[in-house]
Specification:
single chain; 201 residues; mainly alpha; 2 strands
Length: 201
């Protein structure tokens, strides 16, 4: 606990600090609750994305029998080209997080007469798998940012609740006692001085 001065000025400073902490605490607690909710939602989204990725990979595995040679694998892969991953941002509880929008694929075409019938399915399965993987990376980033902010906010709430507010209350209590003792002592000295003065007269 920092050293304090036992003065009315210090008492006012401690009371002002206490009012400020008590005013900010509910906002921090609300932010903490909101972040806890957002972290839970983020975990659910990540879990859903992982399940969807597994389903897409299972579907792809079912089509893999068509990728019997390296040449065929390369041919299908060459029909899927990621042009860009489109994201936006959103503000949640005062922090900016990335939002996955979509993956833009290059508009590649193939001859329907000369390519095997399964080409469309294979290309679609590859696109779905790549989109889900890109979304998963964005969701992981969201989770990391939200969790980091939740940790910081929780530390601030704990600092206010368990350190700053009790410290201010204790300082105010000690100052009041000391000022009361000093006032009592001053009154006693004044009475003694008055008594001595009356005896001398």
């Amino acid at each position: 606990m920092a050293k304090i001065k036992y003065t009315k000025t210090e008492q006012k400073h401690q009371q002002d600090s206490l009012k400020q902490f008590l005013r900010f605490l509910p906002t921090l607690q609300l932010k903490k609750q909101q972040l806890q909710q957002e972290v839970r939602i983020s975990v659910e989204k990540l879990s859903a994305n992982r399940a969807a990725r597994k389903a897409a990979l299972d579907r792809l595995a079912g089509l893999l029998l068509f990728f019997s040679t390296q040449e065929e694998t390369e041919r299908y892969a060459s029909l899927v080209e990621v042009r860009s991953i489109i994201t936006s941002t959103m503000n949640i509880a005062g922090i900016t997080i990335p939002i996955f929008d979509k993956v833009e694929f290059a508009p590649l075409e193939w001859d329907l007469l000369t390519t095997p019938w399964q080409t469309d399915d294979c290309v679609q399965a590859l696109k779905e798998s790549l989109s889900l993987r890109a979304e998963g990376k964005v969701l992981e980033k969201q989770y990391e940012l939200l969790l980091a902010e939740l940790t910081t906010t929780t530390q601030r709430v704990n600092l206010f609740e368990k350190v700053k507010i009790p410290e201010c209350k204790e300082n105010i209590r000690r100052i009041k006692i000391q000022l009361g003792d000093m006032e009592t002592s001053a009154v006693a000295r004044s009475k003694i001085a008055k008594s001595k003065s009356q005896r001398m007269n």
